[in-house]
Amino acid sequence: MVLLSRIMHPCLFFLVAWSAAGVVKGAAAEDFLHIHPEKPVVEYGTSVVLNCSSSCAPINLETSLKWAEAGTGSTWKSFNFTEVDQWSVAPLCYVNCERTPLDRRANFTVYRAPERVELDLPQKMEVGKEYNLNCHVVDVAPIRNLTVTIFKGGKPLLEKTFENHTKPQPGNITVTYPITVEQQDHNESITCHAALDLRPEGPLLEKPSASQLLEPVAFPMDPLLESPLSAEIGTQMTVTCEVTGVFPAEEAMFELSFAGENLDLSIHVLEETASAQALVHLPSIGNHELICTVSLGPVKRSVNKTVTVFALPKPIPEDDHLKVVVNTTVNVTCKLDGVKSPGVVMQIKDKNQTLASSEDSFIINYEVTTCEEDDGREFLCIAQLQVNGTEVTKNASVKLTVFYAPRITNTSCPSVLTWKEGSMEAFICSAHGNPPPTVECRRDNMVYHIGVQQQIMREHKGVYHCNASNAYGSDAKDVTIVVEFFQLNIVAVALSVLGAAIIISMVTVGYYMYYRSHKVRKYRLKQQAAGNPMEQKCLNGGASV
Ligand SMILES: *[C@@H]1O[C@H](CO)[C@@H](O)[C@H](O)[C@H]1NC(C)=O
Ligand SMILES: *[C@@H]1O[C@H](CO)[C@@H](O)[C@H](O)[C@H]1NC(C)=O
Ligand SMILES: *[C@@H]1O[C@H](CO)[C@@H](O)[C@H](O)[C@H]1NC(C)=O
Ligand SMILES: *[C@@H]1O[C@H](CO)[C@@H](O)[C@H](O)[C@H]1NC(C)=O
Ligand SMILES: *[C@@H]1O[C@H](CO)[C@@H](O)[C@H](O)[C@H]1NC(C)=O
Ligand SMILES: *[C@@H]1O[C@H](CO)[C@@H](O)[C@H](O)[C@H]1NC(C)=O
Ligand SMILES: *[C@@H]1O[C@H](CO)[C@@H](O)[C@H](O)[C@H]1NC(C)=O
Ligand SMILES: *[C@@H]1O[C@H](CO)[C@@H](O)[C@H](O)[C@H]1NC(C)=O
Ligand SMILES: *[C@@H]1O[C@H](CO)[C@@H](O)[C@H](O)[C@H]1NC(C)=O
Ligand SMILES: *[C@@H]1O[C@H](CO)[C@@H](O)[C@H](O)[C@H]1NC(C)=O
Ligand SMILES: *[C@@H]1O[C@H](CO)[C@@H](O)[C@H](O)[C@H]1NC(C)=O
Ligand SMILES: *[C@@H]1O[C@H](CO)[C@@H](O)[C@H](O)[C@H]1NC(C)=O
């Protein structure tokens, strides 16, 4: 039967076309020929049964599909389309009713459920930036029956239908939604939903995509890179790279490199701030690039900085304590050893001024012919370098000791000392000299103790011979000590003694006169008490008063 209809097909087509035109005027095909279902819905590649019923006979079928008879009755015939493998088919049932050909077509809806529904959007998205959220529905037919809905957290963002799509063939559909995320969208889920609605004749086929959680990322500013602009070779410097206002801060990925080498980092996160710290060893001189790169999801930000590594050794004095005899010439010499940056300047200075200076030479000297005043003088050896606009210096000091013979001056040892007898005074006589000289002052082989407080007596007067000496020589000077005493005092003492003697003698004379006038009375009394010698002695005593 299949074979027959295929062979007949071209002729039959013309026949039908011709006969249908005739039918329009007469009875309607619907009244004499029924097909069920009228609008078959069939999944591509599966089977469907079509029942044509009519009081007229025979019932014939015209189709390009494979079919088999699935049953027959007196007024009906059912056809099993065993495998619907075309997208656009409309089999034709036809009969001849009283020589009038009648036919009806069954317009098939051939469908294919979407094979896959896929979401396509970046996992992490930058806050405030627009991204395309794509939903791919793969291999679906008919597209005009498709509805694609994108949901965010259960609420539809977009619903799209394709009713103007006319092609029955399957195709791939991509629905695009421009999405902008906020930080609050964190953990919201996005899903895409495809529905192939074939109702009422067919099923409603639904297929959701896998859901995807939103991971908004905030990274609004470039990192802040903190490090010194310059550092000394061999030292370590701490470098910090920090990002603020980032979300989620704990996901910030840091990469720090110095001079092309990656550094070991320690990461700290506090709320919306993340920072990385590294200790950098500075092995070689020159300008090195410090680069910090921070990535957070799709955002990557990088900052760099040039760090100048310099080498400036400390000057080394040949002798940091020069000890020389006065009037000799000595060199203050300093040198620089080891690695050094170009442009190092060396200088020798004292408190006042620059004495010597040299560039690009690593030994410097200053010749001094010493005088006494140079004793205790200090020199500074300075190494200097301009590093990126700032001056770096290192220095070492050199001390100078000058030995010289003693010198006694008028101020340190006056020629004449005038003292008052009885006052407390100390003999001061010193001398300049290095090492400090010993000073001795003598008079007639008698050594005067210098600097000791002493009560001054007349014997201290005289001419003293002072001698100062140290290992480098001696100096001498005579010092005259004058002791003042007052002649006037002695006269006064003599006068007062004389005065007292006069007074005493006058009193004595006066008393004697008085005694003599009273002597007779007392004598009597004396005789009455003659028996007691003790009494007599007492009376005598009393009389002598
Ligand atoms: C086909 O349709 C006729 C008339 O409606 C009915 O009697 C018959 O049972 C149907 N056949 C099948 C197989 O459903
Ligand atoms: C139609 O054909 C298919 C495939 O051969 C078969 O599986 C199915 O049972 C048939 N249907 C009927 C009603 O005969
Ligand atoms: C099938 O489609 C054709 C044209 O596309 C239309 O003329 C015909 O009426 C349709 N048949 C049914 C049963 O809807
Ligand atoms: C479908 O086509 C009609 C007519 O051209 C139009 O009015 C309608 O907006 C179209 N629908 C869509 C979804 O494009
Ligand atoms: C649909 O997409 C799939 C892969 O996803 C591809 O193999 C196929 O060829 C596409 N179909 C069309 C019609 O572009
Ligand atoms: C996000 O959701 C996952 C699973 O739904 C959950 O484990 C996680 O704790 C959530 N995170 C936040 C920050 O809400
Ligand atoms: C979907 O398919 C059915 C056939 O089952 C049809 O009747 C309906 O009009 C279609 N819907 C759209 C929107 O094309
Ligand atoms: C350092 O940053 C500047 C701009 O700030 C850029 O031009 C340069 O290429 C960067 N250098 C490196 C090594 O990344
Ligand atoms: C040191 O030199 C000065 C001047 O050249 C001279 O007057 C003085 O005597 C010298 N002193 C010694 C200790 O040689
Ligand atoms: C000081 O150094 C210079 C240069 O090295 C040398 O010519 C000079 O003789 C030295 N002077 C003394 C006193 O050593
Ligand atoms: C500076 O040098 C001058 C002579 O060169 C000297 O008189 C002065 O005392 C010095 N000042 C200091 C602070 O050394
Ligand atoms: C520091 O050095 C770098 C690299 O040589 C240079 O780009 C920068 O301008 C310098 N800065 C100053 C203040 O000299």
From TrEMBL:
<dbReference type="InterPro" id="IPR013768">
    <property type="entry name" value="ICAM_N"/>
</dbReference>
<dbReference type="Pfam" id="PF21146">
    <property type="entry name" value="ICAM1_3_5_D2"/>
</dbReference>
<keyword id="KW-0325">Glycoprotein</keyword>
<keyword id="KW-0472">Membrane</keyword>
<comment type="similarity">
    <text>Belongs to the immunoglobulin superfamily. ICAM family.</text>
</comment>
<keyword id="KW-1133">Transmembrane helix</keyword>
<keyword id="KW-0812">Transmembrane</keyword>
<dbReference type="InterPro" id="IPR036179">
    <property type="entry name" value="Ig-like_dom_sf"/>
</dbReference>
<keyword id="KW-0393">Immunoglobulin domain</keyword>
<protein>
    <submittedName>
        <fullName>Intercellular adhesion molecule 1-like</fullName>
    </submittedName>
</protein>
<dbReference type="InterPro" id="IPR048679">
    <property type="entry name" value="ICAM1_3_5_D2"/>
</dbReference>
<dbReference type="InterPro" id="IPR007110">
    <property type="entry name" value="Ig-like_dom"/>
</dbReference>
<keyword id="KW-0677">Repeat</keyword>
<feature type="transmembrane region" description="Helical">
    <location>
        <begin position="490"/>
        <end position="514"/>
    </location>
</feature>
<keyword id="KW-0130">Cell adhesion</keyword>
<dbReference type="InterPro" id="IPR047012">
    <property type="entry name" value="ICAM_VCAM"/>
</dbReference>
<keyword id="KW-1015">Disulfide bond</keyword>
<feature type="signal peptide">
    <location>
        <begin position="1"/>
        <end position="29"/>
    </location>
</feature>
<keyword id="KW-0732">Signal</keyword>
<dbReference type="InterPro" id="IPR003987">
    <property type="entry name" value="ICAM_VCAM_N"/>
</dbReference>
<dbReference type="GO" id="GO:0005886">
    <property type="term" value="C:plasma membrane"/>
</dbReference>
<dbReference type="InterPro" id="IPR013783">
    <property type="entry name" value="Ig-like_fold"/>
</dbReference>
<feature type="domain" description="Ig-like">
    <location>
        <begin position="406"/>
        <end position="480"/>
    </location>
</feature>
<dbReference type="GO" id="GO:0005178">
    <property type="term" value="F:integrin binding"/>
</dbReference>
<dbReference type="GO" id="GO:0098609">
    <property type="term" value="P:cell-cell adhesion"/>
</dbReference>
<dbReference type="Pfam" id="PF03921">
    <property type="entry name" value="ICAM_N"/>
</dbReference>
